[in-house]
Structures are given as C-alpha cells and as structure tokens.
C-alpha cells in the first residue's frame, strides 16, 4: 500500500503522503541545467584468452594445425589428428622445416595392401560442424622427403568419423616436390552431417600412394568469417560482440599478456604470414597459435567500430618475476615497435609492415595500458610505470597511458591520468558501489572499469564462481552501471569480463557470452551490456540521487531529442517511479528484462531471460512520467 506522490509543480516540487509503514513512490526530478557528455567509449569489451581465441573467436577450424610447441614423436603431438584407413602418422622435427618458426611437420607413410582412400583427418576443436550452406577455404603445405615418381590427387574435404564422405575436391600432388608447396582449395560440403563428429580429411587413392611418404605442415580450414576478412574471426561470435556496439575493445588481455617472461605475448610473433607465427604456451596451459594476432585485434576493433585499448607487456610476468629497472630498455623498445605497428607512419619499419598487410592508414589508437593488474607486484610497478610512461610519452605524446594498479597503492609517478580498476564481487557489492565514483575529485584523472562481473551471489556466498551470470547478478551490474553513467565525466570506459566461454572447455566463469561449435549463448549480463550500450545517449542529465541503501537505481541521458531512462530494480517486489522531465513527452518505447533472481541463460535454456520491447504512449504529452517497475528488472525507456 503506497499512496501516489502528488505533483504540485511540474518542475519538481513534490509532496509525499506517507501512511504508516507504506513507502512513498520514488520521484526523480531531472535537472535541465546540469549535464555532461557521455564518452562514446563508455561501454566496451575486454578480451581474455580463456579458450576463447583458438577454437573460439578465431575462425580457424583445425586444432593443432601447425604442431606448434609440441614434442615430436609423441602421441600428444598428434592432438586433433587421426589416421584414416591405416596410414602411419607421426609428428616429426622436419630437417627442412616449413619456416624457421614452425619446426614440426606431420609425416604420413602409406602402407601397401590398402584399398579405397587412405590418409589423415582433423577432428576440429571439440567437434567439426559441416554446413552445406558454406564454402570453406582449406590449405596445407606438403613436401616429399625424397623425390619419387608419384603423381596423384589429394582428396580434400569432409567425412563423418564413421567414414561417410560429406563432400570433397581434389588437388594434384607431385612426388618431385621436395621443397614445401602450398595447396589451397575451396570446398562446399555436399552432404548434411547429423552431428559434429566429423573430420576434415586429406586422403589419397590407397593403391597409387602405397609406399610413399609425404610431410605436411600448416594445415588450415576456414569457414566464411566476420566481414569476410582473411584469417578472420568467427561470424556468429563476432556478430554477438558487435551487437553490443562496444565503444572500446581491450586486448590482448589480461592474463594473456604472459605467465612467464619467456612466454609473454610479443606483438611481433603474432603478425604477418601464419608461417611466421611460432605460437606460445598461454596462461591457461594450452598452445595459442597466435593466429588471432595484433593485426587481427586491431582489424576487429575497427570492424566493430570500437576504439582499441591496447595493452603492452610492462616487465611483469604472472609468475611474479619482474624485469629489473636497468634491463627494461629492450622491453620498452618492443612496446614502441608495437605502437608503431598500430599507428606509426609508413616511414617506420613497423608502420610499413602494417601497410604491407593491407592497412596503410594508422589504426585509431588512443589508449595504451601499461601491463595488467600490476598491483600484483606493486614494488616494481613504481619504476616500471615511471620508465614505460616516460619513454612512451616522449615517443607518442598524443596517446593516453593507463595505469593498472589500484589508485595510490603504490604511489606511482608521474601521477597517472588514467587508471584501470577491476572488480569481481557480489550483486549487493555492485549495487552499493554504484556510488563509488560520486565522491571522487574532478581533477582531470579518468577511470576505466576494465574488468568487472558479479561472480558470486549474496544468498549462498559459496565463494565458488557462478557458472553463468544470474539475473540477480546482472541487475547488480546494471545498478553499478547507472552509477558509472552518472560519473561518466570521470569514468571513460567499462567492460564486463571475461567475455567468452567455450562450453566444451570452460576455464573461468561466469562469462558474457558462451559458445559451442554450433551456437552462441547470450547471458543475462550480455543483455544488460547491450541495453546500456545501445541506449547510451549523448548527454547525461543530473537527477534526484537514488537512495544509497535502496533497491531502485536509475540514470537519465538524452540522445538527440529522445530522453533515455534506465531503471534497475534489484528487489523481489515491484515499485513505482515518477520522472519529472524538463520537457513534455508523449511516446516512445520501454524495453524490459525481468525474471527470477537465479534465472540464467544457459546452453540448455538459452533464452530464459531476454529483453522485451513495447511501445509507450501517454494519453497527453506530459513532463511527468510514472512507471510501474517490475520486481527484479532492468527497463530502458526511450521517449520523445
Ligand atoms: C620479436 O622481437 C623481439 C625483440 O623485440 C626479438 O627478440 C624476437 O626475436 C622477435 N621475434 C620474432 C619471431 O621476430
Ligand atoms: C585527482 O584526485 C584523485 C583522488 O580522487 C587523486 O588520486 C589523484 O592523484 C588526483 N589527480 C591529480 C592530477 O591531482
Ligand atoms: C504503484 O502505483 C499504482 C497506481 O497508483 C498502485 O496501484 C500500486 O500499488 C503501486 N505499486 C507499488 C509497489 O507501490
């Protein structure tokens, strides 16, 4: 039982009649004279590896395509590969490697007395989807260790694991070829596969090829990619990310920057021809092909209209080892080279390399992040931050440098103008901390919430990370985000993290998007991000503040002449809210996402919670807009 508030003055003088234990409706007066610009970078995306690149965002379909970082002559070196019809397959260290960076090859020996087709196949990453609607690009290198008179055809295509062909093409193979030669074909599958238990295969007529030995290297299979980029990203995952219209894309991570000094992410090992990329054992224990490299990250950022936030390795590895101050020089030079690759003129070696890869114009790079969560080694960050920012800003005064430690712990100099703050907490922590930035000084220092997520719930406090975002958690994030919008004069960006979860090999949860071979699953937190990002607005308007201990949160922005109100109710009971706007409005839409606290969108139930849009028409144009807020909900009202 709540009595309606009564409007005495259209510009905000309101009297509440409160009866007994009933509470008054919330009235939000929008101040027409107090507003600030919302940065276009406000809602962005952070990329973390966590099994999300190879077999995920990166569209390559073959697992272990180039036998990178494996031990030759072991069974483990054959991960992903199978013999078909009795061919002998083995990974060797080739005396004449396909490139200095890829020492290993698949050696295939064809025994006598076999019939039909014989060769080898790859099972893909956790299965291989074969789609008759798509044309795939397949390629590999081969050479004969010893010249022979063999002349025959490789049959390149798809089959089920039980041997049913799903379609193939042929390419001529010559035994005279003792140096590496590339074969490239396009294959459109002819038969529909019942499931993902399929191989991409390279097979030969058993009679003709009997007795031959052939080495293979850098085998690759791509479906059509996002924007049809060569060596590009997976269409459905990229489309989902783009749906969020990220204002920035932060890469290469995160922990992906490196577990040890030797295995750190180095830009120059991730660019250029695939034969020039040695790969690397990443932070999650498996080999990264680095096919998704610096150029691909920059290209993807550009393709989705996101401003890149590029991390550079800052002399600290995750295992805790730091480079000593006196030895930092070469690492800073590597960061300079990395930045030149992104923005340097073609008069620089690195800028020229970018041009030869098809992008002579500089990428629109503004932000450089110095390391990741460097508070983990705060003592050495003092000199690492000083040295990196001093030298980099001498070279690139136009760029902004982001510090990755908690503000003032340790005290670093020069005083950072940009901080990256990370938070992995509970729903109630996020709701309370929607006021976190309200008390910060407006002195020119800017903040990035480069990683945040509700990872545990309030009720159980199990301290086990949630497997998938829950509605309750997502609404905690939404409440927090209303505070980031209010403070977007000093908060220039924010990203949920981690972004991608390969459900066949989950590493770190919860995630914004989950995916398997066939599908992408949009979480409740994904929809929160999407609703905020696609309704960001250009101007933030000050309005009555939410109650810090309360359950109702809001923010008001304006996009051209449309008013955009975001309303979050973290309580399990409905509420009412009345906005008093500076101008009369009449019609628009309301988009509502609601459900039960523990609701999650999962592969088993992917669309349990999703935003629903309806039109909103007032009987007469009015400055006053009352909205009945559903329990546990996020609403975006757009009204003109
Ligand atoms: C990458 O650059 C570093 C130094 O900046 C160098 O030591 C290394 O050999 C380079 N690696 C490749 C594969 O070019
Ligand atoms: C701005 O204020 C923050 C505290 O809100 C402080 O940490 C920072 O050093 C100040 N920056 C400048 C440039 O004064
Ligand atoms: C919201 O307002 C309506 C209309 O006055 C009223 O019937 C309803 O009880 C109110 N709901 C809450 C939760 O206050």
Automatic annotation (TrEMBL):
Pathway: Glycan metabolism; L-arabinan degradation. Its EC number is 3.2.1.55. PANTHER family: ALPHA-L-ARABINOFURANOSIDASE 1 (PTHR31776:SF0). InterPro entries: Alpha-L-AF_C, ASD1_cat, GH, Glyco_hydro_b, Glycosyl_Hydrolase_51. It comes from the Eukaryota. Residues 1-24 form the signal peptide. Pfam families: Alpha-L-AF_C, ASD1_dom. This is non-reducing end alpha-L-arabinofuranosidase. GO terms for molecular function: alpha-L-arabinofuranosidase activity. It comes from Hypsizygus marmoreus. It catalyses: Hydrolysis of terminal non-reducing alpha-L-arabinofuranoside residues in alpha-L-arabinosides. Belongs to the glycosyl hydrolase 51 family. Keywords: Glycoprotein, Hydrolase, Signal. One of its GO terms (biological process) is arabinan catabolic process. Residues 450-633 form the Alpha-L-arabinofuranosidase C-terminal domain.
């Amino acid at each position: 039982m709540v009595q309606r508030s009564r409007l005495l003055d259209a510009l905000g003088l309101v009297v509440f009649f409160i009866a007994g234990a009933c509470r008054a409706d919330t009235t939000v007066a929008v101040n027409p004279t107090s507003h600030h610009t919302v940065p276009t970078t406000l809602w962005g995306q952070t990329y973390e590896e966590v099994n999300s690149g190879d077999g995920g965002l990166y569209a390559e379909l073959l697992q272990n395509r180039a036998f990178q970082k494996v031990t030759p002559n072991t069974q483990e070196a054959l991960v992903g590969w199978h013999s078909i019809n009795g061919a002998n397959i083995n990974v060797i260290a080739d005396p004449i490697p396909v490139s200095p960076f890829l020492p290993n090859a698949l050696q295939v020996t064809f025994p006598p007395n076999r019939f039909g087709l014989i060769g080898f196949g790859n099972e893909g990453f956790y299965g291989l989807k074969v789609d008759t609607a798509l044309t795939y690009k397949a390629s590999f290198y081969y050479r004969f260790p010893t010249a022979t008179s063999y002349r025959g055809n490789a049959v390149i295509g798809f089959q089920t694991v039980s041997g049913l062909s799903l379609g193939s093409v042929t390419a001529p193979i010559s035994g005279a070829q003792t140096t590496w030669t590339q074969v490239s074909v396009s294959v459109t599958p002819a038969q529909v596969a019942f499931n993902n238990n399929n191989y991409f295969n390279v097979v030969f007529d058993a009679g003709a090829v009997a007795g031959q030995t052939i080495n293979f290297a850098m085998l690759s299979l791509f479906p059509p990619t996002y924007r049809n980029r060569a060596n590009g990203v997976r269409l459905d995952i990229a489309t989902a990310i783009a749906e969020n219209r990220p204002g920035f894309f932060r890469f290469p991570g995160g922990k992906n920057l490196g577990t040890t000094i030797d295995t750190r992410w180095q830009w120059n090992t991730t660019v250029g021809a695939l034969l020039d990329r040695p790969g690397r054992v990443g932070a999650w224990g498996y080999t990264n092909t680095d096919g998704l490299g610096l150029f691909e990250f920059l290209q993807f950022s550009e393709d989705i209209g996101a401003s890149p936030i590029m991390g550079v390795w800052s002399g600290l590895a995750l295992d805790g080892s730091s480079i000593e101050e006196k030895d930092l020089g070469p690492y800073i030079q590597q960061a300079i080279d990395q930045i030149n690759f992104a923005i340097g003129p073609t008069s620089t070696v690195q800028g020229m390399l970018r041009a030869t890869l098809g992008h002579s114009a500089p990428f629109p790079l503004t932000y450089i992040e110095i390391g990741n969560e460097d508070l983990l080694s705060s003592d050495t960050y003092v000199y690492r931050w000083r040295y990196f920012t001093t030298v980099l800003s001498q070279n690139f005064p136009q760029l902004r440098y982001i510090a990755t430690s908690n503000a003032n712990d340790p005290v670093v100099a020069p005083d950072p103008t940009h901080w990256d703050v990370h938070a992995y907490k509970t729903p109630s922590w996020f709701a309370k901390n929607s006021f976190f930035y309200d008390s910060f000084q407006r002195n020119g220092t800017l903040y990035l919430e480069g990683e945040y997520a509700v990872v545990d719930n309030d009720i159980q406090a199990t301290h086990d990370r949630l497997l998938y975002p829950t509605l309750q958690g997502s609404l905690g994030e939404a409440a927090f985000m209303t505070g980031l919008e209010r403070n977007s004069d000093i908060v220039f960006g924010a990203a949920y993290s981690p972004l991608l979860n390969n459900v066949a090999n989950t590493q770190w949860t919860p995630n914004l998007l989950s995916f398997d071979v066939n599908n992408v699953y949009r979480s409740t937190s994904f929809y929160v991000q999407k609703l905020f990002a696609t309704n960001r607005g250009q101007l933030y308007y000050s309005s009555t503040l939410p109650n810090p201990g309360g359950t109702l949160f809001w923010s008001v922005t304006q996009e051209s002449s449309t008013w955009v109100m975001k309303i979050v109710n973290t309580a399990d009971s409905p509420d009412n809210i009345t906005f008093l706007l500076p101008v009369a409005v009449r019609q628009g839409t309301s988009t509502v996402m609601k459900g039960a606290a523990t609701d999650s969108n999962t592969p088993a139930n992917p669309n349990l919670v999703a935003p629903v849009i309806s039109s909103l028409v007032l009987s007469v144009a009015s400055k006053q807009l009352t909205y009945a807020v559903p329990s546990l909900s996020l609403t975006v009202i757009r009204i003109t």
